[in-house]
Amino acid sequence: MKKIAIIGGGASGLLCAIFCAKESSKVEIFEQNQRCAKKILVSGNGRCNITNTNISQDDFFSDNSSFVNDSLNHFGFKEFEKFALSVGLLLDIKDDGRVYPLSNEAKSVAKILQEYAKSLGVIFHTDTKITDIKGMMNKYDSVVVATGSEAGTHLGGNSDGQEFAKVYGHNIVQTYPSLVQFHLDSNVAKKMSGAKVDGEVTLFLNHKKDSTTSGDILFTNYGISGFAILDISQRASVALMNFEHVSISINLVPSFTSQKLSAHILKIAQNMPKFTIIDILVGLIPIKIATNLVEELELSLALTAQNLNTKMAKKIANLMTNWRFEVSDTHGFRHAEVSGGGVDTSEVNSKTMESLKQKNLYFCGEVLDVVGKRGGYNFAFAWASGRAVARAICVK
Ligand SMILES: Cc1cc2nc3c(=O)[nH]c(=O)nc-3n(C[C@H](O)[C@H](O)[C@H](O)COP(=O)(O)OP(=O)(O)OC[C@H]3O[C@@H](n4cnc5c(N)ncnc54)[C@H](O)[C@@H]3O)c2cc1C
Question: Of 62, 155, 196, 385, which alpha carbon lies 20 to 30 A from 267's?
Fold first, then answer.
């Protein structure tokens, strides 16, 4: 019976353990935390966006973007769905392709994976941090590094896997936080802390327009958060790492053009002559944002509709549809959902996930230089790469 050690009891390690144990290998999981699957438990705001029905290499960032294809072709959505159904983990497929457990609870995913692994005889060593990769390689037939990334340091995120890889001469692609919030160089943004809009964000890199996303935008005491921000964070984080100038433009009311918005403001001013400018704006945006926006334009908060002229309405509309902020940093690894960079995939076999530098040493999940977009893609790769390792070890 083959002796397999899996370092890391997260998504990729658990899936790998299950498929190895099904082939009657002796599988041991070593997990530094008191319990496994901490990131699964907090994922998707406790709901776990477990995968996506539409997955392609375009959903991932890596120095070697086609690396994901072999594992995802073998264990993509259909194969994951079949596995999930076989263990009683029913899925809720949303119209946009995102997939959640039917229970709507990440706990179900963590529990079912662990209980299934236990039932197959997988041995769990929790509270056990591995530091000596060579010692593990000497003791076991195969060693799987499933240690994840530096993201979410309070959940156990670290760079141990990269250190293990370096022992065998692997190159590490520089890591950076992704799916992460931004620090803004702006006092007015801080003053709007707690205010939220469903808006549009455009990212500028070195003053050139890069990309636009829409969704939740939340001002915070350090800068800005929300799904729209997370969606542009990968490109922004790489640019910051390369010392590029990064800024964003926020459109607080994407359903209006600037011209239509100023016409709207003037029309309401005409209909409601006793209104202040704030009374007009709160029909469109949260009051905290409205007051700060008016102050930013050095207009009086007491400005009445009667005294509002076309020039003022245009200035207000322009700022509401194109409010520029300088991004000074990301909110860091601790708050990031994932990390980009990692073990260089050009030195790992994309079919088997075996190191090309050291036989019987495997990598799966986020420790590798593969990071997905928001939408269940990071778990999709964790499952696919964990499955690929199990297939490779068990057919050897
Ligand atoms: C807040 C948050 C929300 C997220 N939401 C989603 C989502 O909804 N959908 C999605 O697709 N992705 C989501 N992700 C990303 C997803 O959780 C990860 O991509 C995925 O867990 C990676 O799996 P992994 O097995 O590579 O690493 P992990 O799941 O991080 O597992 C690695 C394990 O290795 C352990 N470990 C590390 N070093 C050692 C060591 N030296 N010895 C022993 N054990 C060690 C760690 O404690 C950890 O348990 C989210 C992440 C976070 C932080």
Answer: 196
Give the atom of ligand 1 at the shortest distance from the alpha carbon of 11: 25
One digit per residue, pLDDT tens: the chain, 396 residues? 899 999 999 999 999 999 999 987 799 999 999 999 999 999 999 999 999 999 999 999 999 989 999 999 999 999 999 999 999 999 999 999 999 999 999 999 999 999 999 999 999 999 999 999 999 999 999 999 999 999 999 999 999 999 999 999 999 999 999 999 999 999 999 999 999 999 999 999 999 999 999 999 999 999 999 999 999 999 999 999 999 999 999 999 999 999 999 999 999 999 999 999 999 999 999 999 999 999 999 999 999 999 999 999 999 999 999 999 999 999 999 999 999 999 999 999 999 999 999 999 999 999 999 999 999 999 999 999 999 999 999 876
Gap from CA of 259 to ligand 1 centroid (Å): 46
b/e map of 248-262 (b: 16 or more CB within 10 Å)? bbbbbbeebebeebb
Domain edges within the chain: 3-173+343-395, 181-331
Q: Are 384 and 76 in contact (CB under 8 A)?
A: yes
Domain 3-173+343-395: what homologous superfamily?
A: FAD/NAD(P)-binding domain (3.50.50.60)
Instruction: Compute, in angstroms, the gap from residue 114 CA to the centroid of ligand 1.
Output: 15
Distance 262 CA to ligand 1 centre (A): 47
* Atom 3 of ligand 1, nearest CA residue: 43
The closest-lying atom of ligand 1 relative to the alpha carbon of residue 45 is: 3
Which residues have C-beta atoms less than 6 Å from ligand 1? 7-13, 30-33, 38-39, 42-44, 48-49, 129-130, 146-148, 151-152, 155-156, 158, 160, 337-338, 365-367, 376-379, 382
Q: How far does residue 192's CA lie from ligand 1's centre (Å)?
A: 32
- Which of 210-228 are b and which e, b meaning 16 or more Cβ less than 10 Å from the residue's Cβ? bebbebebbbbebbbbbbb
148 Cα to the center of ligand 1, angstroms: 5
SS3 (DSSP) at 200: strand
